[in-house]
């Protein structure tokens, strides 16, 4: 009996001194490691239309005080906003996420229920890195100074990733916005890096102008189908899906359903068939088609305190292409481009 008591005492003592973990500050209540989903944030306040979706994708009922599990997605309608308390592992919970109107953001990380501590201990919560993935709109993250230096923060957008770099003495505040690109240029199909990447193997080291007419036609048709598959050409918006010679074939594949009702494989088949027919019938001329040279993605990361390391998600993590954004600075990430050098925060 004495041996068991001593073992539990030593286990708890060991965990309490683990670097970066301050169990004395964690206030998550009683938890069950086999059943608890964890705690990512809590709704502090909101105005206007607010939608909350669980990890399963289904909409969940939520209001002031609702605790959000990791994997939750929050949407604010135009004119609506929300403020969430971030589960950062501190008892005071002073870290805040503010969500602007017309935004969509997913949250992972926060507190999770650890089974390392003895079951007799009611406070078995532990902290992990928190990640905010912003699909659209604007958020502001205000991370408390009291958070453990081992606690991580990452903010993701469709094309950018910003990772926290700070000492335990700093307070972190950053604003991230996602918007469209107003200054993108249009290029021919083979000038687009993603299309070029797909057709390179077929060119076998030759230039497109070195091919005979039949080969060139085949390469350009392949380039057009690649662009459609990548979403660079929206044949539905162009009305091609409704063309009287193409629509019957589309209906046969979709069984009369709208593309939005199909699974990914059926949708891809319908688009591929319609695109192939459009090229064959001259409704699409691959040699004269142009597409935007960058995706419709423009991320702006502003740092008011602390430091964030920013890189382009399309290009992968490469220290040679990162930008460290310090307090009072911002960085832009456009499409596939490397982040710009930081500049003074805009008013």
In words, what does this structure look like?
This protein has 347 residues and is α+β, with helices and mostly antiparallel strands. The chain has helices spanning 2-16, 193-203, 213-229, 247-254, 264-280, and strands at 41-47, 50-53, 59-60, 67-68, 72-76, 81-86, 96-99, 104-113, 125-143, 153-156, 160-165, 172-179, 186-188, 290-292, 298-305, 307-312, 323-325, 329-334, 343-344. The chain folds into two domains: 14-180 and 298-344, Jelly Rolls, CATH 2.60.120.1440; 186-292, no CATH class. The strands form two sheets. It has a 17-stranded mixed beta sheet that branches. The chain has a two-stranded antiparallel sheet with strand order 13-14. A hairpin with a 5-residue loop joins β2 (50-53) and β3 (59-60). α3 (213-229) runs antiparallel to α5 (264-280). The protein starts with a helix and ends with a strand.
Task: Sum this structure up briefly.
By secondary structure, the chain is of the alpha+beta class. It contains 5 helices and 19 strands. The strands form 2 sheets. The chain has a 17-stranded mixed sheet that branches.
